[in-house]
Write a structure and sequence with these properties.
2 domains; mainly alpha
Length: 528
C-alpha cells in the first residue's frame, strides 16, 4: 500500500508542478480559485445582514432540481453500465498496476480514492452558485457546501453503480433485462407518486412534484430520494436523517464494491474494456474529433457512394452519408427529441410570459458545447479537404454546412413544441427559432476563428471559456438591445424582441467567414 500512496502523492505533486510550465493554465486556475473565494467571502459577509423584508423562493424547487439532476445521472450511468461500463482507472493505471504484484483490493482502493478526488474537483462549479442559491432560497454557506458534497456523492455513486451493472450484466442478456426492469420500475414508481400527490392535493403537476419533495416515503427512493433527504434534513437541522441518507449511500456502495471483489468476479478484466473506451474518447476530444456512438443502421445495397456532389460539394454529401449511418433520420436525433420535450415541459411548468426566453437562453448555452465539436474541426484533421482543387471559402462552407443546418432543423422541432405547450404566438416562436438557428451559426464561425488563430483546436476547456467570453463580448449589444426591446416594445410587437440578437449573429457569422474563409490557403495539414 506504501507504493500506491507514493504513486498518489507523486502524481498530485507532478500535476501541481507542471502548472508552472503552463502560465495560461496557472492564470486560469488562479481566476477560478479567486472567484470561488470571493463568492464565499461575499456570501459569508452578507449573512451578517438582517433580512427582514425579502421573501425567498420555495425551497422545494431546489429539491426538485436536485431530483432532476439525480435522474439525469442515473439514466446516463445506468445506460453506460449496460453497454461499456464506467471505470475508476486510466490506461496508465492499467499498464502500471494491473500487472504489479499488488493486492487487487488495494488497487481498487487506490482507484476509489483517485476517482473520489476527481469527482469532488468536477463538482467545484456548484460553489459558483453560492450567491444565486443564497439570494433565491436564503440558504447559508454551510448548506451550500452540503449541496456541493451531495452532488459529488451522487456522481461518485452513479459511477460505482455503472461499473457494478456492467460486471453484473456483461454478456448476460437476461440480467440486462432485469436491470432495465428495475431501472424503469423506479421511474414508474416515481411517476405514480407524483400522480397520487396530484389526485390527493389537486392543483397543477408542478405543485404535485413539489409536494412529493416533502413526502417522507419518497426520501427512501434510491439516489434521488436519498439526496433530497440529505439536503432537506441539513436545512431543517435534522441530524438523524442526514446520517440515514449518508448511510444509505455508504452501505449501497459497500454492496457494489463487494461485487467487484467477489470470488467469481474479476474486475480487472471487466473494467479493462471500459478503460480503453474512456481513453479513446478522451483522445478523440483532445484531437478535436466529435465523440459519437455508432448505431447499427441497415444500409440498402443500392445505396453506395456519396449519392451526389462534385468538388467541394462532395464534402457536404460525405457528411450527410455519415449522418445517415449514425441515425436513420439524418438531422433528427436523440438531442432533438429530448430538447423539444424538455423545452415544452419547462414552458408548461413555469407558465410565465418570459418562460420562452428562459428556455431560449438555456438552449443556446447548451448549443455552444454541441456545436464546438462540429464537422469542420474534424475535417481539418484529414488531408482530403486540402487536396480538393477549389477555393478555400467554398470548402470551408461545405465542411460547415451540416453543422449550420442542424440548429435550423432543431429550432423548428423545439419551438413547435414550445408554441404548443406555452400557448404563445406562433409568430413569437418563429423569431425565437431564428434566434436559436443564428446562434448556432455564430458558434460554427467561432470554430473557424479558433482554427485561424490557434492553428488548430486548443484544450477544450480553454476553448469553451474563450468561446463563451468571445460570444458574450460580441453578442452583448445584440443581447442588450433584445432585452430592452422585449421590455419596451408594446405587447403586440414583443415577438420582434429577439430580432437584434438574430441580426448580430448573422452579421458576425458572415464577417468571420469572410475574414477567415481563406484558412486552407494559409494552413498546413498536420494530422492534428
Amino acid at each position: 500500500m506504501k507504493a500506491l500512496g507514493y504513486l498518489l502523492l507523486t502524481t498530485l505533486k507532478n500535476r501541481v508542478l507542471s502548472i508552472r510550465k503552463k502560465p495560461a493554465y496557472l492564470i486560469l486556475y488562479g481566476c477560478i480559485v479567486a472567484g470561488i473565494i470571493a463568492m464565499i467571502i461575499i456570501s459569508a459577509l452578507s449573512d451578517e445582514e438582517v433580512q427582514t423584508v425579502k421573501s425567498y423562493g420555495d425551497i422545494r424547487i431546489l429539491y426538485a432540481i436536485l431530483t432532476g439532476i439525480s435522474i439525469l445521472f442515473l439514466f446516463s450511468f445506468v445506460s453506460t453500465g449496460l453497454s461499456t461500463g464506467s471505470t475508476l482507472f486510466s490506461m496508465a493505471d492499467v499498464g502500471l498496476l494491473f500487472v504489479a504484484p499488488i493486492s487487487s483490493r488495494k488497487i481498487l482502493l487506490y482507484g476509489l480514492i483517485k476517482q473520489m478526488a476527481t469527482t469532488f474537483l468536477s463538482a467545484v462549479f456548484i460553489l459558483y452558485q453560492v450567491g444565486t442559491i443564497k439570494n433565491s432560497f436564503g440558504l447559508g454557506v454551510g448548506t451550500i457546501f452540503n449541496l456541493f458534497f451531495i452532488y459529488a456523492i451522487i456522481i461518485f455513486f452513479c459511477q460505482l453503480l455503472s461499473i457494478g451493472i456492467y460486471i453484473f450484466s456483461s454478456g448476460r442478456p437476461e440480467r440486462k433485462r432485469l436491470v432495465k426492469l428495475i431501472f424503469y420500475g423506479l421511474f414508474a414508481v416515481t411517476a405514480l407518486a407524483v400522480y397520487l400527490q396530484y389526485i390527493r392535493n389537486g392543483g397543477t403537476i408542478l405543485e404535485a412534484v413539489l409536494n412529493l419533495m416533502n413526502y417522507k416515503p419518497f426520501h427512501f427512493m434510491p439516489v434521488m430520494g436519498w439526496a433530497v433527504m440529505f439536503i432537506s434534513a441539513s436545512v431543517e437541522g435534522n441530524v438523524l436523517y442526514v446520517v440515514i441518507a449518508l448511510l444509505l449511500f455508504f452501505l449501497s456502495s459497500i454492496v457494489i464494491i463487494s461485487l467487484f471483489t467477489s470470488g467469481d468476479a474479476d474486475y480487472y478484466e471487466d473494467v479493462l474494456n471500459s478503460t480503453e473506451v474512456a481513453y479513446n474518447k478522451l483522445q478523440d476530444v483532445k484531437d478535436g474529433k466529435k465523440v459519437t456512438v455508432i448505431k447499427k443502421v441497415k444500409i440498402k445495397e443500392e445505396q453506395t457512394g456519396l449519392q451526389g456532389g462534385k468538388g467541394y460539394s462532395a464534402i457536404f454529401y460525405k457528411h450527410l452519408l455519415e449522418k445517415k449511418r449514425t441515425g436513420r433520420f439524418v438531422f433528427l436525433d436523440t438531442y432533438s427529441i429530448l430538447a423539444a420535450g424538455s423545452a415544452g415541459f419547462a414552458c408548461y411548468l413555469i407558465n410565465s410570459e418570459f418562460s420562452v426566453y428562459i428556455v431560449l437562453g438555456i438552449l443556446v448555452y447548451i448549443q455552444f458545447f454541441i456545436t464546438i465539436l462540429g464537422k469542420l474541426s474534424e475535417e481539418l484533421t484529414k488531408p482530403y479537404i486540402y487536396m480538393i482543387p477549389e477555393k478555400s471559402i467554398k470548402k470551408v462552407i461545405a465542411a460547415s454546412m451540416t453543422t449550420l443546418i442542424k440548429p435550423c432543423f432543431d429550432a423548428i422541432i423545439i419551438f413547435t413544441f414550445v408554441c404548443i405547450f406555452s400557448k404563445t404566438s406562433p409568430l413569437l416562436n418563429l423569431f425565437l427559432a431564428l434566434a436559436y438557428a443564428s446562434s448556432g451559426a455564430i458558434f460554427v464561425s467561432y470554430t473557424l476563428l479558433c482554427q485561424r488563430i490557434f492553428g488548430g483546436q486548443p484544450n477544450k476547456f480553454i476553448s469553451a471559456m474563450l468561446g463563451l467570453t468571445l460570444f458574450m463580448a460580441v453578442m452583448a449589444p445584440g443581447i442588450g438591445t433584445s432585452i430592452a426591446a422585449i421590455l419596451l416594445l408594446p405587447k403586440a410587437f414583443t415577438f420582434l424582441g429577439t430580432l437584434p440578437f438574430t441580426f448580430c449573429c448573422i452579421v458576425m457569422t458572415i464577417f468571420v467567414f469572410a475574414v477567415c474563409g481563406d484558412l486552407l490557403d494559409k494552413a498546413e495539414y498536420t494530422g492534428k
